């Protein structure tokens, strides 16, 4: 049984180990969230220049260069657009589904059901600086994915995006459940008219991981993570998929025992004598490296791999377990906040590991894309469930959820990005197709 840390109920929490790991968990999460209190500085613009050749989704032919003074910029022609840099603008037409028209919304993200009073957070769309990002068109999406398959690989935020996608597509049709297991963490859906298959694979650490003490009290919060071992629950399964979206985040802030070459290498916040202290960044970097290595080494995999970047949390006025909450009802403008601290560090690690993976993949004709949602998501402190992910009297560990996303809500925009990128792939492959057909 696997649970997201913040899905632990309080009774379960009481079963936690008496001292070390529990405290460690609180401390680490606390540290993580502490770094996310917004400060008011202009964005440095790193998201738009770093690794621009692979990270920016270009709407048209890219013609960018960088200066070598360490402060490189994309030189933007008017035919090119970085869709990930922009602002949220009002959209009175949203939302495009509700909790009444879509059954796929996870209960803890069904903010309408739990009486969230302000529904203004649904009424925004992402406006890239230099172009328009079309609102998700479900007909177009299904047409592009006709006869194809798409897998989400990750944790509960990954599932959050998949459920958003099912809801956005529900204007056309609902999928049929064709799961091969009863396990809710490994769902498979099929859209018969389009022969489109959608799947979700639960792997919050991306690599092989086990609870440290399977015979001990359940969900102690301490996991053994085998940083150099593929996770067999998803790696062989994705071989047949045309598109794979991987992501990871908050689980790396839990106490973790890190293994490499089968040996205990050290730990993050385990408070065990004689065990080397390692940072969460150590684990995060290696987990991504191993996950990408797994993907790049699958002999029959021909899919396009997306890295969906880090999803920021928005606790303010306290830590997650000390009354911290997310009560804003409007997005930030890009000049009002910036990614920093842990969020920035995790994001940078993703960029670096993505670039390594991209280079390695290219050697055997595999492509990787960056679904670079972090900046747009950072600007949405208003889109979390807060206390509207459960009934007021319900005992839940994360009373104010400033981690996941209400549906409908901001991460519907992640699927706007996804569709735009898939359309971009079509544009890219058109000359290639012409070329191939000329030769045949
Ligand atoms: C949907 O939200 C409404 C409030 O807007 C609530 O009364 C209803 O129970 C919810 N329905 C479901 C199926 O969650
Ligand atoms: C449906 O798509 C799969 C690939 O996802 C393909 O193998 C299969 O032949 C397709 N079925 C039909 C009936 O077109
Ligand atoms: C830690 O290492 C020291 C020195 O090697 C040893 O004396 C001690 O017993 C070890 N403690 C544990 C819990 O293994
Ligand atoms: C952000 O920019 C807007 C207009 O672009 C301006 O009105 C606002 O004062 C700026 N906010 C900050 C904190 O600089």
TrEMBL record:
Gene Ontology terms: cellular component: Golgi apparatus; membrane
Subcellular location(s) of the protein: Membrane
Chief location category: membrane
Topology of this chain in the membrane: Single-pass membrane protein
The Trichome birefringence-like C-terminal domain, residue ranges: 133-421
A Pfam cross-reference name: PMR5N
GO molecular function: O-acetyltransferase activity
Chain ranges passing through the membrane: 23-43
Keywords for this protein: Membrane, Signal-anchor, Transmembrane, Transmembrane helix
Domain Trichome birefringence-like N-terminal: 80-132
UniProt cross-references to InterPro entries, sorted A to Z: TBL, TBL_C, TBL_N
PANTHER family the UniProt entry points to: PROTEIN TRICHOME BIREFRINGENCE-LIKE 19, PROTEIN TRICHOME BIREFRINGENCE-LIKE 9-RELATED
Family the UniProt entry places it in: Belongs to the PC-esterase family. TBL subfamily.
Protein name per its UniProtKB record: Trichome birefringence-like N-terminal domain-containing protein
Originating organism: Protea cynaroides
């Amino acid at each position: 049984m696997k649970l997201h840390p913040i899905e632990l109920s309080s009774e379960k929490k009481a079963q936690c180990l008496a001292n070390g790991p529990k405290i460690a968990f609180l401390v680490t999460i606390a540290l993580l969230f502490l770094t996310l209190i917004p400060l008011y500085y202009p964005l440095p613009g790193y998201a738009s220049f770093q690794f621009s050749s692979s990270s920016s989704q270009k709407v048209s032919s890219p013609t960018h260069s960088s200066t070598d003074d360490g402060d490189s910029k994309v030189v933007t022609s008017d035919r090119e657009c970085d869709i990930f840099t922009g602002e949220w603008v009002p959209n009175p037409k949203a939302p495009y589904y509700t909790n009444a028209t879509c059954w796929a919304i996870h209960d803890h993200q069904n903010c309408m059901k739990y009486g969230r009073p302000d529904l203004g957070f649904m009424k925004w769309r992402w406006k890239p600086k230099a172009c328009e990002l079309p609102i998700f068109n479900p007909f177009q999406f299904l047409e592009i994915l006709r006869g194809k398959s798409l897998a989400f690989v990750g944790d509960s935020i990954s599932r959050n995006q998949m459920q958003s996608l099912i809801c956005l597509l529900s204007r056309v049709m609902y999928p049929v459940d064709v799961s091969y297991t009863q396990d809710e963490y490994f769902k498979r859906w099929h859209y018969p008219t389009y022969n489109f298959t959608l799947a979700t694979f639960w792997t919050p650490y991306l690599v092989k991981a086990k609870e440290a003490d399977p015979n001990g009290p359940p969900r102690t919060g301490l996991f053994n993570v085998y940083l150099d071992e593929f996770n067999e629950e998803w790696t062989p399964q994705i071989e047949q998929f045309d598109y794979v979206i991987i992501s990871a985040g908050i689980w790396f802030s839990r106490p973790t025992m890190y293994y490499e070459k089968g040996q205990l290498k050290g730990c993050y916040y385990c408070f065990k004598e004689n065990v080397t202290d390692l940072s969460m960044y150590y684990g995060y970097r290696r987990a991504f490296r191993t996950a990408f290595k797994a993907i790049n080494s699958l002999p029959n995999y021909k899919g396009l791999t997306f890295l969906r970047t880090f999803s920021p949390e928005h606790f303010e006025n306290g830590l997650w377990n000390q009354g911290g909450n997310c009560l804003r009802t409007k997005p930030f403008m890009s000049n009002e906040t910036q990614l920093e601290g842990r969020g920035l560090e995790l994001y940078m690690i993703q960029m670096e590991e993505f670039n390594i993976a991209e280079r390695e993949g290219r050697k055997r004709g595999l492509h990787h894309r960056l679904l670079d949602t972090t900046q747009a998501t950072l600007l949405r402190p208003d889109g979390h469930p807060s206390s509207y992910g459960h009934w007021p009297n319900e005992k839940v560990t994360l009373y104010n959820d400033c981690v996941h996303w209400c549906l409908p809500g901001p991460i519907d925009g992640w699927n706007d990005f996804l569709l735009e990128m898939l359309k971009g792939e079509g544009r890219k492959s058109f000359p290639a197709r012409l070329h191939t057909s000329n030769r045949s």
